[in-house]
């Protein structure tokens, strides 16, 4: 995490929760790889407006993203994700579970949904064990709210 005060989340995650989140992401990636699902990188899937898909995330995932992005650098264009630029995601490392399990290949939709639910439950349990406040909603809306709260008054 960058020590600069404008780069830190206003509610940093406890180290144990951050480590569990990273572990969850790593294990999920391994399971997706084992399924044989691949990203075609055509920029169709992750354009959630075009795909008519609404991305949801937990407050834990939003806090994790905000650990490395200052509020000043996040620019919102309506409902579009601020990391969706020129047809590509610019935040692959810290993207939420919903991004990680959303692919163009519809043959895997059901299996990916089950993986999402499994890892979402693990994340929710980890947050509860860490006594971290939990909310779940639109990723972009939560990111906007958190970024607004992070900006100096």
Key features?
mainly alpha
Quick structural gist:
With 153 residues, this protein is mainly alpha-helical. It has helices at residues 15-35, 59-66, 97-100, 109-129, 139-150, and strands at residues 56-58, 84-85, 88-89, 136-138. The longest helix is centred in the first third of the chain and has 21 residues, at 15-35.
What do these coordinates show?
43% of the residues lie in helices and 7% in strands. It is mostly helical and 153 residues long. The strands form two sheets. Strands 1-4 form a two-stranded antiparallel ribbon. A two-stranded antiparallel ribbon has the order 2-3. Strand 2 and strand 3 form a beta hairpin. Helix 1 (15-35) packs antiparallel against helix 4 (109-129). The radius of gyration is 15 Å and the shape is globular. The two termini are 23 Å apart. Mean pLDDT is 82; it is low at 1-10.
How helix-rich are the residues, as a percent range?
40-55%
Q: How large is the count of helical segments?
A: 5
Global morphology: globular
Q: What oligomerization state is this entry in?
A: single chain
Spatial strand sequence of the major β-sheet: 1-4
- Give the strand content: 5-15%
Largest sheet: 2 strands, antiparallel
Distance between the first and last residues' Cα: 23 Å
Encode the helix/strand succession as letters: HEHEEHHEH
């Amino acid at each position: 995490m960058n020590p600069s005060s404008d780069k830190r989340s206003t509610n940093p995650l406890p180290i144990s929760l951050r480590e569990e989140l990273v572990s969850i992401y790593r294990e999920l990636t391994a399971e997706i790889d084992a399924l044989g699902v691949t990203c075609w990188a055509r920029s169709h899937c992750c354009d959630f407006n075009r795909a008519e898909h609404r991305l949801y995330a937990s407050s834990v995932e939003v806090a994790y993203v905000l650990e490395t992005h200052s509020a000043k650098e996040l620019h919102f264009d309506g409902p579009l994700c601020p990391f969706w630029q020129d047809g590509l995601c610019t935040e692959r490392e810290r993207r939420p579970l919903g991004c990680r399990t959303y692919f163009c290949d519809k043959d895997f939709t059901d299996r990916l949904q089950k993986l999402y639910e499994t890892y979402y439950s693990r994340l929710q349990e980890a947050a509860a064990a860490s006594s971290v406040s939990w909310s779940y909603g639109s990723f972009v809306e939560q990111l906007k709210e958190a970024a607004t709260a992070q900006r100096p008054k």
